[in-house]
Amino acid sequence: MFLFVSEALILSYQALEPFLIPLFQCHSGKAQYYDHAVNWLRKVRAAYLQLGQQQEWQRYRTELTQTHARKRKLVSMLQQRDLL
């Protein structure tokens, strides 16, 4: 049952990712949405790991880090929640 939920979470994340990207691309005044995006990523990470797809998570995490490396607040939040 949990594997089905994990798979569904990953699929839903992949479907919602185009809508979540603006949360990561926030400019000044919109960084308050980082918390929502980071919380969602914690759930996605847990799903990837539960499914034994650690390499896929690592690949996505690396891409995310490279894309948003200049967003200090976001990077700090990701580090605090052990997502980097």
What is the count of structural domains?
Answer: 1
Instruction: Tell me the β content.
Output: under 5%
**Dominant shape:** globular
| Helix-strand sequence | HHHH
Any idea what the radius of gyration is? 13 Å
Name some characteristics of this structure.
4 helices, 84 residues
Task: Describe the overall structure.
The chain has 84 residues and is mainly α. The chain has one domain (2-80). The chain has helices spanning 2-24, 34-50, 54-67, 72-80. The longest helix is centred in the N-terminal third of the chain and has 23 residues, at 2-24. The termini are far apart. The model has no long low-confidence stretch (mean pLDDT 76).
Write the layout of secondary structure elements.
Layout: H1 2-24, H2 34-50, H3 54-67, H4 72-80
Helix pairs in contact: 1-2
What's a concise summary of this model?
The chain has 84 residues and is an all-alpha fold. The protein is built from 4 helices and no strands.
